[in-house]
Amino acid sequence: MTNPHLTINLDAVTCNASKVREICLARGIRADSVVKCVCGDIKIAEAILEGGIYSLMDSRMKNIAAFRKAGIRAPLGLLRIPMLSELHEMLSYADWSLISMPGTITELEKLCASEKKEFDVLLMTDVGDLREGIWPDRIGEMADLFRKCRWIRCIGVGTNFGCFGGVMPSKENLKMLVDISSELQRALGNNKWLISGGGTNLFYEMLNSDITPPEINHLRIGGALLRGRCGTNVIEGLRQDAFVLTAEYVEIARKPSRPLGPIGTDAFGKVPHFEDRGMRYRAIAAIGKQDVIPEDLMPLTPGVTVLGASSDHLVLDIDDADPRPEMGGTLDFSFKRYGALLHAFNSDYIERVYVRDDRRA
Q: How many degrees, rounded to 5, is the angle at CA 310 between CA 252 and CA 322?
């Protein structure tokens, strides 16, 4: 294998998928897996489905098409509200989609009618995070629009928490979601109905508080299933060892801990700050901001600290490392946050290595 590389434990992924499904089913909730983080990785998608997850959801039609062409038969949902320019492709490869704009619904209905093909949509509503979703006072308008549709079926209402505005689920905004959903469901007269309360952040709250109303029966879960965490918080009962990043040392030297000379902006327009700790052993690993989010990497060797990075060089303090790293050696990292894993999967320079608990996959 080459460096840097990402070791992916498929058994850990399957284990987490199975556990998330079990937890949700016990509460009457369908858990679908958000797989946008893994950029269309077929092996990971298959490992998730082995855990009993019903549907895979991705934001990119390229990945959804790849899943279908690879033989995945599970329902596939488009997670990002669709572009008008991709409606035809969506109809060809996806089974359902999140949606918000009346104009998009109108165009999709026309396309479905021309192809005589039914399609399911879940209406997104905005309860405060200010990303996608219809504003609550337009639900009556949306009900009128859906009643006119012959080929499109609205299967429920959903919302988003935490991904843009940082708004977390609460009793108040979840009640708002349930009330909006009930209004639309009554207007449409649908019996089978999803109330999609978000993703990992609500899953975590469901395990640790009493804010989740019983009407919530659907979650779109990515981070918990893949990382066993919500943000930096470990989720009890899930595994955190599904992904390990490995990088190789290319320089080890004893140097001052503070740069010498006037400090300006770095290559990314930031003015760095350095604590003067005297002479320290430092190392450079062959990976950088082109591949990862440096501040969200957690070295698995005690005593190693990430100091920062340029495009291709990750600078580390290794003075307290035991044992002391050597040239040509490697350092393993886990990921502090979801975004760091997403960044790594988007790098063409990080090889993927698949393993099982007892062998290489």
A: 30
DSSP 8-state secondary structure symbol assigned to residue 300 = S
Q: Is 30 helix (H, G, I), strand (E, B) or coil?
A: strand
Pairing of strands 314-317, 152-158: unpaired
In the chain the domains, ranked by start, together with CATH numbers, are: 10-234 (3.20.20.10), 243-360 (2.40.37)
The catalytic position among 19, 36, 175, 270 is 36
Per the CB < 8 A criterion, the answer to whether 238 and 20 are in contact is yes
The H or E element containing residue 33 is strand 30-34
Q: Which of 234, 241, 252, 256 is nearest to 316 (CA)?
A: 252
Q: How many whole angstroms separate alpha carbon 306 and alpha carbon 299? A: 8
Predicted TM-score (pTM) of this structure: 0.95
- In whole angstroms, what is the distance from residue 155 CA to residue 163 CA? 23
DSSP state of 134: B
Please name the residues in contact with 192: beta carbons below 8 A apart, sequence gap of 6 or more: 155
| CA–CA separation, 169 and 160 (whole Å) | 9
Q: How far apart are CA 74 and CA 283, in angstroms?
A: 46
Q: How far apart are CA 9 and CA 240, in angstroms?
A: 10
Instruction: Name the residue among 29, 60, 216, 57 with its Cα closest to residue 127.
Output: 216
Report the alpha-carbon distance of residue 292 to residue 273 in Å, rounded: 20
Q: What is the pLDDT of residues 304-343, one digit of tens each?
A: 999 999 999 999 999 999 888 999 999 999 999 999 999 9
pLDDT at 212 over 90: yes
CA–CA dist 76, 80 (Å, integer): 12
Contact 15, 203 (CB under 8 A): no
Q: Active site includes 36? A: yes
What is the distance of C-alpha 340 from the center of its chain?
Answer: 10
What is the Cα–Cα distance from 115 to 96, expressed in whole angstroms? 16
Residues 360 and 263: their CA atoms lie apart, in Å, by 47
